[in-house]
Write a structure and sequence with these properties.
The protein is of the alpha/beta class. It has 17 helices and 19 strands. Residues 428-538 form the Response regulatory domain.
């Protein structure tokens, strides 16, 4: 029944778990219904549902035979999703019962308590998206059955389509699960890195000049934090959860800067050769995602050569006219080629090489997503990707990137040496964030700039302070918060106090169409970045006052 197809069935008989979970899902716009027992769950599953949210203790000691029968008797198109709330996660070492639940439930995601409300909602939405794909597959399968005519040729064609539809469904589910999990981890890391980077930034500016040894240690810690930030960005790119940040990139300089990383990744027995012209034009790319793509190609080449051979990386410029390259728009391109002397591929393997999850490596040595990621990145950048190979003669991977107009976009200042910028007058700031560590760390950075900060742990508390008469110069709010997110808080404030500027800070990795053009500052950030954001927020067209040209900042 359509009314039942996407509802969440909640089986949590102990305590307030069911009530709390239902409230979280309802607030997120999802329909849920609470059930009291396993037999009732099975009965409602038969009527239709989008997912089931079950606590581990609800299954412990219960007769699960009817549930197991229902799961095993699902139609070919169906792989019903479960979210299992546990106290010890899904790891076998901490939770030996996880293997039993995995075998019983099949398509199950383990969610360990305690969890953030946005994590539960994100898991539920991912499960419903997967269920919708199953319904689409069902429609295609039903259509195939109705078109059966008894002619052998048509039966064979429809059977092939049937198999392709089922395979596509399972691959889409794998990608959805991978993206959801990776995105959630990245979101948490962004929140963890924000107070770390902020504290290190402040310590460096205050004490770095007076203690060279401390300055070196803090520099190294900041560098590690920056690398962690870059790693998070690469994870998001791998999971397709981050919008590309394209700019003009010096491809030759990027490859030269990766030489040590590539060499350590492929091993000492492989001869690494890098060639590019000094006059190579800039290319349109996201440098972080491009680095990840190059590294993927190099690691694939290493595996194809069994750790011994020659790996050549070449960058050159090409021009394509109309019809000369059917997969590329006519124009100027920079071609990046990764060439190995490995075992090569036959025509059948080459034809499937960029398919998601297709891999010729043994189990445990690859996900089958590397070449698919490179192919997808090239398409997003308006370029192309091509493979050529023969058995015994190695493989050549060519990545085509559009030539950028104008020069290379370069960062003018190292962030770890960036001077503090702020308005010349002190500001009163209302800071809203549900994560205490982020809220306290951000407040200290702002106070150190000479501003006054008032805290609020959520949208409701922030509105209450404003209703009580608080009139800050600036409001800074987190985006993803339980109950009321930053976009909704900003909308309500604009209805009554449109003159107060609002800055959105976010470690969220999904879509933010509802933010209505609010200025944003992505987590993690340092003191210089929050200072510049404040200065631009109050009077974006005015000049700002430079407080300090070195590392150490003082309040004025």
């Amino acid at each position: 029944m359509p009314a039942h197809s996407e509802r969440a069935l909640i089986l949590a008989p102990q305590g307030r778990d069911a009530t709390v979970a239902l409230a979280m899902l309802t607030e997120a716009g999802l329909h849920g219904i609470v059930v009291q027992s396993v037999p009732e769950l099975v009965a409602l599953l038969g009527e239709g549902a989008g997912l089931a949210l079950v606590t581990e203790e609800a299954l412990t000691g219960a007769d699960l035979s009817a549930l197991a029968d229902w799961i095993n008797d699902q139609s070919e198109w169906s792989d019903f999703p479960f979210v299992l709330l546990t106290q010890r996660g899904g790891g076998l070492e901490r939770n030996p019962a996880a293997a039993r639940y995995l075998q019983l439930l099949g398509n199950v995601t383990f969610l360990e308590r305690p969890f953030h409300p946005t994590t539960l909602v994100s898991f539920a939405r991912a499960a419903i998206r997967g269920r919708r794909r199953q319904y689409e597959a069902r429609a295609r399968l039903e259509e195939l059955h109705e078109l059966a005519t008894g002619l052998e040729q048509r039966v064979e064609e429809r059977t092939a389509e049937h198999q392709a539809a089922v395979a596509q469904l399972h691959e889409a589910q794998k990608l959805e699960t991978l993206g959801q999990l990776t995105g959630g981890v990245a979101h948490d890391f962004n929140n963890l890195l924000t107070p770390i980077m902020g504290a290190l930034d402040m310590l460096q500016r205050k004490y770095g000049d007076s203690d060279p040894r401390s300055a070196r240690l803090i520099d190294n810690a900041l560098l590690s934090a920056e690398r962690a930030k870059t790693l998070v960005q690469r994870l998001l790119g791998f999971a397709r959860r981050q919008t590309l940040e394209t700019k003009a990139v010096d491809l030759g300089g990027l490859i030269d800067g990766m030489r040590d990383l590539i060499a350590s990744s492929i091993g000492p027995e492989i001869d690494l050769r890098i060639r590019h012209g000094a006059d190579l034009p800039a290319a349109v790319a996201d440098p972080n995602q491009l680095e990840l793509a190059i590294l993927n190609l190099c690691v694939n080449a290493r595996d194809a050569m069994n750790g011994n051979g020659t790996l050549t990386i070449v960058a050159d410029q090409l021009a394509f006219g109309p019809g000369s390259q059917p997969r590329l728009t006519p124009g100027l391109y920079v071609r990046l080629s990764v060439i190995d002397t490995g075992s090569g591929m036959d025509s059948e393997t080459l034809a499937r090489a960029v398919e998601p999850f297709y891999s010729t490596k043994e189990t445990g040595r690859g996900t089958g997503l590397g070449l698919s990621m490179v192919h997808g990145l090239a398409a997003q950048l308006g370029g192309g990707f091509a493979l050529s190979s023969e058995p015994g003669r190695g493989t050549r991977a060519d990545l085509y990137l559009r030539v950028a107009e104008g020069g290379v976009a370069r960062d003018s200042v190292d962030r770890r040496r960036q001077p503090l910028l702020a308005k010349g007058r002190a500001l009163s700031v209302l800071l809203v964030d549900d994560e205490e560590l982020v809220r306290v760390g951000t407040a200290e950075m702002i106070r150190d700039l000479g501003h006054e900060v008032t805290h609020a742990s959520g949208g409701v508390e922030a509105l209450a302070r404003l209703d009580a008469g608080l009139r800050p110069d600036v409001i800074i709010t987190d985006y993803k918060m339980p109950g009321m997110d930053g976009a909704e808080l900003a909308r309500r404030i604009r209805d009554t106090l449109p003159e107060i500027p609002i800055l959105l800070i976010t470690g969220y990795t999904g879509t933010t169409e509802t933010t209505y053009g609010l200025p944003r500052l992505s987590k993690p950030f340092g003191q210089a970045e929050i200072a510049m954001a404040l200065a631009g927020l109050v009077e974006p067209d005015d000049k700002v006052v430079r407080l300090q040209t070195g590392r150490r900042g003082t309040k004025r």
